[in-house]
What we know:
Layout: H1 2-15, H2 20-26, E1 34-39, H3 46-50, E2 57-62, H4 76-86, E3 92-98, H5 102-108, H6 117-122, H7 144-163, H8 165-172, E4 177-183, E5 190-194, E6 199-202
Parallel strand pairs: 1-2, 1-3, 3-4
Antiparallel strand pairs: 4-5, 5-6
Amino acid sequence: MERLIEGHKRFLAKVFPGRRSQFHLLAEMQAPECLFITCSDSRVVPELFLGTGPGDLFITRNAGNVVPVTSADVDGVTATIEYAVEVLRVKHAILCGHSDCGAMKAELDHKLLENLPKARRWLSHVEAAYAHRQPLNSADGDSAELASLIRGNVVAQLQNLRAQPSVAHAIAESRLTTHGWYYDILTGRIEQYDEDAQRFLPLF
Ligand SMILES: [Zn+2]
C-alpha cells in the first residue's frame, strides 16, 4: 500500500498540476472513442502500450476478457458495453486477449479451478474458444498450444461482442467497428484478427 500512496503523492505533486486544464474539462464529461475489453491481468496495461490517457478508453476487464452471451441475468460486462455503444457512442470496440492468460490456462487444466466455483462457472463462457483455435505459432515456443487457444478465445468473444443487441445495431448503422487483438507480453507487440484471412496478423 505504501507504494501506491507514494505514487499518488507523486501524481498530485508532479503530474496533476501540468494537466489541470485537461482534468478540468474531463471533470464534467467524457467522450472516449474506444471501448476496450480486456483481461484483469496486471500485466496488461493498455495506457502504457497504446499511449493513451484519461478520457481515451472506456474499459471493462474480467478474467479471460469474456463477453457473456448466455447469462440470463444482467452482468457488468454487457451492461458496460451497452452504455459505451448507446450512450457514449464509441466508434471502435476492441476485444483484447493476451499471452500467458491464467484464465485460459485454467480452461486447459481444470485442476486449477478446484475450490474456485465462481471462476469455473465464469469460464464456461470461454469454451467456444476451442472451436476457433488458431494455428500453432513456433514463435510462441512452449506456450504455442495455450497461445492458440487464447487467440481462439479472442475470436469467440469477438463473436459474442457482435451478438450484443446494442453492438449489432451500431454495426448495422455503420457507426461502430469491432477489432480482435492479441497482446504479447514478452515482445510488447499486438496482433489483430484479420476477418478475411481468418488469422492473426501484426497490427501494423
Ligand atoms: Zn488473462
